[in-house]
Specification:
The complex is a heterodimer of chains A (about 180) and B (about 325).
Chain A (H helix, E strand, L loop, with lengths): L2 H27 L13 H15 L3 H19 L1 H5 L4 H19 L7 E6 L4 E7 L5 H14 L4 E7 L8 E7 L3
Antiparallel strand pairs in A: 1-2, 2-4, 3-4
Helix pairs in contact in A: 1-2, 1-3, 3-6
Chain B lengths: L2 H105 L5 H14 L2 H33 L7 E3 L1 H11 L1 H4 L3 E7 L5 E3 L1 H18 L6 E9 L3 E8 L6 H6 L17 H11 L3 E7 L3 E9 L7 H4 L1
Parallel strand pairs in B: 2-4
Antiparallel strand pairs in B: 1-3, 4-5, 5-7, 6-7
Helix pairs in contact in B: 1-2, 1-3, 3-4, 4-6, 6-8
Classes of the chains: A alpha+beta (about 180), B alpha+beta (about 325).
């Protein structure tokens, strides 16, 4: 997992509970801490930390991870505005994740294993995303998609009929634009 | 230490660790970059070496093509130089006899010269030395001219074949074109008329040997395009503006379709049958012109003809590397 994700998690936790909370989380998770955005760390390290964060916040894991996804999108957009600026609308942005954004990530870090994200437009208002990753972070993916929708000023709903956590080999995320 | 201070100390340590980790990434990346750059430079050098070989091979192939024509070119003057010298040889004996007899006669007393005089007159008559006397100046000048031509042809050939030169020097493109044309005199024969409109050009900093190779290539191709064409014409013109020298070589031959026109600078592309032509001439020409900071364009109409336009920066106005980027 790229270090930037750890940095963003740190930002989210310190926003809620200050420096104190983040240091406590790191100590409790038994990790060294000190993550730099440009390096790569083990996925398990992130999961350990997220596990502790969920405990400390006393909220259901799905909620925390989803909220993290939304927050993470905002932070990524702030750090790398070009990717958002390049796409005029929400669906084209989603379509650019695999071909543009992840391409850039691969340039910098060849060992990164990125999720596979395939977008298929179903209609003007519906986009089907086939997500697949050994880390099965589909909830995080959902959070990120909500975050992106907010960025583009769209209201959406996501249906998740097929899921890796339910023995499928990939997840289907159906993103629909709603009109309210 | 207070809890607060301890907290900040912990946080500081982690930040410092993150910073050090980032520095390590920078160092590693820089090292990797350096290594990749080295590899690229090696590859570039290899490519350039290969390109040199290709250019050389193409030149040799070109020379091969010219060889027959040039042999013919040299053969013509040599034929009449030979014939002239044969004539001279025929007349040499009686001429020498004449000079001897005259020298001997001059030694005699005036009253004894009558017989000698008669002998001399008869000699002049029988060997037709008067006629020879008239012809001699022309014989000499024709022979000289013939040998001069051979010398020029050999000189042009040497200029063209010169391989070692990698340097760029100030050169007159018009002189280059003219010497290249001389190499091709026999190639074109009487069926093709070559119209030259060569305006003087400012000096161009270049490898004239390479540019001559380009001109030669275009002219030979023009010759091929004109095979069987009535009223075949090749026109060569030059002009210049403040920054560039332009050389245009045009023919009214078979021309090219748009599909072919698009491909001509592609390496190994050729419309000639197998065994004829390497398909490298135009791509090498393109490369040579590009390396000189110039451009080469082609216009063509199938069935009507083709025109090549070469643009080269004149001395003092070459683009700097900065401009090219």
């Amino acid at each position: 997992m790229k270090g930037v994700v750890f940095n963003i998690l740190e930002d989210m936790v310190t926003e809620r509970g200050g420096l104190h909370l983040w240091q406590k989380v790191l100590d409790k998770a038994g990790v060294e801490g000190g993550y730099t955005a440009v390096a790569t760390y083990g996925d398990e390290e992130l999961f350990e930390i997220v596990g502790v964060v969920v405990e400390e916040l006393g909220l259901p894991a799905e909620e925390v991870i989803g909220a993290f996804g939304v927050y993470m999108f905002g932070q990524l957009a702030r750090r790398y505005p070009a990717f958002v600026d390049n796409c005029d609308d929400f669906f084209s942005f989603l379509e650019s994740i695999d071909s543009v954004i992840h391409l850039e990530v691969r340039k910098l870090m060849t060992e990164t294993q990125l999720p596979s994200i395939e977008c298929i437009r179903q209609s003007d208002t519906e986009l089907l995303i086939n997500y697949s990753s050994p880390r099965k972070l589909c909830i995080l993916a959902e959070g990120l998609i909500y975050g992106a929708a907010e960025q583009y000023g769209n209201k959406i709903k996501i249906d998740h009929p097929v899921c890796m956590h339910k023995s499928a080999d990939h997840c289907e995320l159906r993103v629909s634009l709603t009109n309210e | 230490m207070s809890d607060e201070a301890e907290l900040y100390r912990r946080a500081y340590e982690r930040e410092r660790d993150a910073r050090k980790a980032a520095e390590q990434v920078v160092e590693d990346t820089t090292r990797e970059l350096y290594r990749k750059n080295q590899k690229l430079e090696e590859s570039l050098k290899q490519l350039k070496d290969q390109q040199r070989v290709l250019i050389q091979n193409e030149k040799l192939a070109m020379l091969g093509t010219l060889a027959a024509g040039i042999a013919h070119e040299i053969n013509n003057p040599m034929a009449f130089v030979h014939a002239n010298l044969e004539s001279l040889a025929d007349y040499l004996e009686p001429y020498q006899e004449l000079v001897e007899k005259q020298a001997a006669a001059l030694k005699l007393a005036p009253q004894e010269q009558a017989v000698a005089r008669e002998e001399i007159a008869r000699l002049i008559e029988s060997a037709d030395l008067e006629f020879f006397q008239e012809e001699l100046p022309d014989l000499m000048s024709d022979t000289r001219e013939g040998l001069e031509r051979v010398r020029e042809i050999v000189g042009n050939l040497r200029t063209f074949a010169r391989t070692h030169s990698q340097e760029r020097r100030s050169a007159d493109l018009v002189a280059g074109i003219q010497s290249t044309l001389k190499l091709l005199n026999s190639q074109f024969g009487t069926d093709v008329s070559v119209m030259q409109s060569l305006q003087p050009l400012p000096l161009v900093n270049c490898n004239i040997s390479e540019l001559n190779q380009v001109f030669l290539n275009l002219l030979v191709n023009a010759g091929h395009a004109l095979e069987g064409r009535k009223g075949a014409t090749i026109s060569i013109s030059t002009r210049a503006d403040k920054k560039f020298a332009y050389v245009e070589i045009a023919d009214n031959g078979c021309g090219m379709s748009d599909a072919i026109k698009e491909q001509i600078f592609v390496p190994f592309f050729t419309t000639k049958p197998v065994g004829k032509g390497t398909g490298m001439g135009m791509s090498i020409a393109y490369g040579i012109i590009a390396e000189h900071g110039g451009e080469i364009h082609v216009e063509s109409q199938e069935g009507e003809g083709t025109r090549f336009i070469i643009k080269l920066p004149i001395e003092g106005s070459e683009p700097s590397v900065k401009d090219a980027v």
